[in-house]
């Protein structure tokens, strides 16, 4: 029975992921502007619940507590479910605003739309570089299903990750900013999630530095978090030299 539940749990997670991607695409493409108008405070809470929940589930202490009750192979699926539920709550209960900050037509609108679709391509490509199956929990679940141990992931940055540490976050930021129509409610979503992206980037650096250690800290010293950021925690991080231990003096012998 436990194995049957595990199989259903894994399949349902992947179906939920596909369902969420479909709705996220249309929501960010402009569906938010057709929702019922209402208090923008609801939008603030919806945007925050995704950011806070997403970050808490990644905290090492929370992860350790969860994996004491849940098999580690299902943690990726649980994280995927939390992400999907947070996005769907935002998409389904959003409240629109008639106030327009910008509304671009002609070449401006075409360029914004091109940036939006290009961000989707970049997002999927970036996720694929690090293993899309790991992001959705599919890989971990698949190894569990075949009763095989999950192989250790090697830290080998390539392609976009040789230019920046967070191409996934940058691509997701493009989904928010590249829009021909920016209403007040969309600006609230864009502002909160952009702030979360930068905070989340820092937290991810700290998390990977904790789990991977020196190889990741060396990587931070070589590659910035984002292009054109030259200082701070999201720039190139200076590695602290290892403390030099004083040599112990051997006692002199007297003859």
Automatic annotation (TrEMBL):
<keyword id="KW-0472">Membrane</keyword>
<feature type="transmembrane region" description="Helical">
    <location>
        <begin position="74"/>
        <end position="94"/>
    </location>
</feature>
<dbReference type="GO" id="GO:0016020">
    <property type="term" value="C:membrane"/>
</dbReference>
<comment type="similarity">
    <text>Belongs to the nurim family.</text>
</comment>
<keyword id="KW-0812">Transmembrane</keyword>
<feature type="transmembrane region" description="Helical">
    <location>
        <begin position="40"/>
        <end position="62"/>
    </location>
</feature>
<feature type="transmembrane region" description="Helical">
    <location>
        <begin position="114"/>
        <end position="138"/>
    </location>
</feature>
<feature type="transmembrane region" description="Helical">
    <location>
        <begin position="7"/>
        <end position="28"/>
    </location>
</feature>
<dbReference type="InterPro" id="IPR033580">
    <property type="entry name" value="Nurim-like"/>
</dbReference>
<feature type="transmembrane region" description="Helical">
    <location>
        <begin position="159"/>
        <end position="178"/>
    </location>
</feature>
<protein>
    <submittedName>
        <fullName>NnrU protein</fullName>
    </submittedName>
</protein>
<keyword id="KW-1133">Transmembrane helix</keyword>
<feature type="transmembrane region" description="Helical">
    <location>
        <begin position="184"/>
        <end position="203"/>
    </location>
</feature>
């Amino acid at each position: 029975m436990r194995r049957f539940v595990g199989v259903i749990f894994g399949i349902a997670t992947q179906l939920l992921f596909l369902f969420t991607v479909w709705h996220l695409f249309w929501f960010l493409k402009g569906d938010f502007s057709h929702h019922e108008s209402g208090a923008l405070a609801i939008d603030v809470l919806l945007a925050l619940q995704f950011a806070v929940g997403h970050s808490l589930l990644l905290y090492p202490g929370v992860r350790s507590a969860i994996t004491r009750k849940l098999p580690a192979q299902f943690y990726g699926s649980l994280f995927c479910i939390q992400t999907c539920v947070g996005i769907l709550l935002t998409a389904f209960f959003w409240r629109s605003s008639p106030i327009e900050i910008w509304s671009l037509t002609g070449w401006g609108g075409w360029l914004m739309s091109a940036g939006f679709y290009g961000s989707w391509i970049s997002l999927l490509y970036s996720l694929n570089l690090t293993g899309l199956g790991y992001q959705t929990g599919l890989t971990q679940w698949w190894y569990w299903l075949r009763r095989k141990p999950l192989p250790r992931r090697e830290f080998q940055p390539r392609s976009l990750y040789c230019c920046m540490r967070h191409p996934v976050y940058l691509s997701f930021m493009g989904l928010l900013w590249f829009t021909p129509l920016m209403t007040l409610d969309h600006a609230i979503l864009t502002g909160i999630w952009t702030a979360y992206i930068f905070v989340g980037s820092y937290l991810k650096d700290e998390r990977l530095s904790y789990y991977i250690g020196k190889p990741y800290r060396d990587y931070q010293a070589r590659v910035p978090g984002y292009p054109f950021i030259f200082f701070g925690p999201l720039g190139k991080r200076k590695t602290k030299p290892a403390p030099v231990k004083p040599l112990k003096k051997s006692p002199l012998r007297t003859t």
